[in-house]
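ARCHIVE CARD
CATEGORY: sequence design from structure
SOURCE FIELD: tokenized fold
FIELD CONTENT:
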């Protein structure tokens, strides 16, 4: 007895259908990750293309294979991975932010391949056998692809449709029950085997830095470093159910964690301190940055932001490297010719403070141009004020303030915003809690002792500390 010819898979893959629905599935809590409470999509998701193809191909051979989608960024590793697995990529430009031509291209190739096999099979026994052993594997759930798939089935060619359960048209399920040539499978079933989560940053922000108002710093680790450090941090932070991204410092002694969707970073800091209690130190960005004379430490170069899947207008920005900034800082704090180096350092820092109008309520001493200071001042204008509505300069500082904060400063010229939300509101309902200077619950409460939200002064565990400013 001779062995039967091996089955051959023709692959037709809709790139957007894979990624958009996969990111939604990853955030839903149905996978190995807890449900995200602040996002319905997890852009950190990554799919191992090799494992995906192996899982779908099984022990069959791979025939003609196509990947369809919108034009990716130049460094898109996913498309490169598909090309490595002998996929012909068909890329189309978006029009007004919408995907165009992708479905039509995939439909055309499905119909053409089915017609070509059918015509050849009519006149050649070899192709008749080839057609009988060919299976079209389509990764899509779009109803727009239903007509060409029906055309393939009418040619007596078997079809496997793989899709996410949340993103497949019910018409495929109806067709599956009517025709034995069609099989429908869910990618949900193999999610854990084909995917992983990448928590590291993937692109620079427009400022070339992280967002201080959304960032916490983890430091002072015990016997941890490098990849082991980040793995441990990731395992703990996923318990928060929040979208976060991490950046490891060059010295591998700190991990910067950004929560882009969180509105109350103080609450996150409180929970993080509970998670890492006795293992590491969790600092708010103002606490960490106060150790430096610069706005951002030199080891921070990248942003913890992922490029959204649908973001096609990401513009390159001009970045001044952290090394250049560090050089300016070294020149500023170098001691002058004195027998006391510490005295020289203090004198240099005092002059730096006098020359910066952002730090001296508008007073300025004439001095030579300081490129390092000017650069840092320019960076501050692109970053939210760490004190936000409690800014002692009422928005006249060097940082950026939101429209809501500026409106509050304008409408309440005599209000001391450093006491904003530090006491309970005693007014009856019917007024706007956002514009009220008093707290409407612990979530809004601000503690002057530890300078964190989530509790009042009298509930602070640092009762023995001096009150804040």
């Amino acid at each position: 007895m001779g062995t039967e010819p091996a089955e051959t898979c023709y692959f037709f893959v809709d790139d957007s259908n894979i990624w958009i629905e996969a990111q939604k599935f990853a955030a839903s809590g149905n996978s190995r990750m807890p449900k995200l409470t602040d996002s319905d999509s997890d852009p950190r998701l990554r799919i191992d293309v090799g494992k995906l193809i192996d899982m779908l191909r099984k022990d069959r051979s791979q025939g003609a294979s196509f990947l369809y989608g919108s034009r990716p960024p130049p460094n898109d590793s996913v498309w490169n991975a598909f090309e490595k697995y002998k996929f012909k990529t068909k890329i189309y430009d978006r029009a007004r932010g919408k995907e165009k031509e992708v479905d039509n291209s995939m439909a055309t190739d499905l119909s053409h391949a089915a017609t070509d096999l059918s015509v050849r099979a009519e006149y050649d026994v070899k192709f008749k056998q080839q057609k009988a052993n060919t299976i079209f594997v389509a990764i899509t759930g779009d109803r727009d692809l239903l007509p060409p798939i029906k055309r393939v089935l009418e040619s007596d060619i078997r079809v496997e449709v793989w899709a996410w359960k949340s993103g497949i048209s019910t018409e495929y399920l109806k067709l599956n029950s009517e025709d034995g040539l069609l099989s429908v499978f869910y990618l949900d079933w193999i999610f854990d085997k084909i995917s992983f989560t990448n928590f590291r940053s993937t692109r620079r922000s427009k400022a070339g830095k992280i967002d201080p108002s959304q960032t916490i710093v983890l430091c002072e680790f015990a016997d941890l470093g490098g990849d082991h450090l980040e793995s441990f941090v990731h395992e703990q932070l996923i318990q928060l159910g929040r979208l976060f991204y991490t950046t490891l410092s060059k010295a591998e002694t700190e991990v910067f964690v950004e929560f882009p969707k969180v509105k109350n970073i103080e609450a996150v800091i409180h929970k993080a301190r509970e998670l890492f209690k006795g293992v590491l130190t969790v600092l708010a960005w103002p606490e960490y940055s106060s150790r430096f004379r610069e706005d951002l430490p030199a080891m921070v170069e990248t942003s913890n932001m992922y490029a959204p899947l649908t973001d096609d207008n990401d513009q390159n920005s001009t970045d001044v490297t952290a090394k250049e900034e560090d050089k300016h800082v070294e020149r500023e704090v170098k001691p002058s010719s004195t027998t006391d180096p510490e005295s020289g350092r203090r004198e240099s820092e005092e002059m730096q403070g006098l020359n910066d109008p952002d730090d001296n309520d508008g007073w300025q001493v004439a001095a030579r141009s300081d490129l390092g200071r000017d650069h840092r001042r320019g960076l501050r204008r692109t970053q939210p004020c760490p004190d936000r509505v409690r800014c002692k300069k009422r928005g006249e500082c060097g940082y950026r303030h939101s429209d809501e904060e500026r409106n509050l400063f304008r409408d309440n010229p005599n209000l001391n915003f450093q006491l904003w939300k530090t006491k309970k509101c005693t007014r009856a309902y019917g007024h706007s809690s956002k514009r009220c200077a008093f707290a409407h619950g612990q979530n809004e409460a601000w503690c002057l002792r530890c300078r964190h939200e989530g509790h009042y002064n009298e509930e602070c565990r640092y009762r023995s500390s001096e009150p804040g400013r």
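CARD ANNOTATION: The first strand starts at residue 8 and ends at 14. Residues 8-196 form a domain with the Rossmann fold fold (CATH 3.40.50.1010).
SHELF: design records, drawer C
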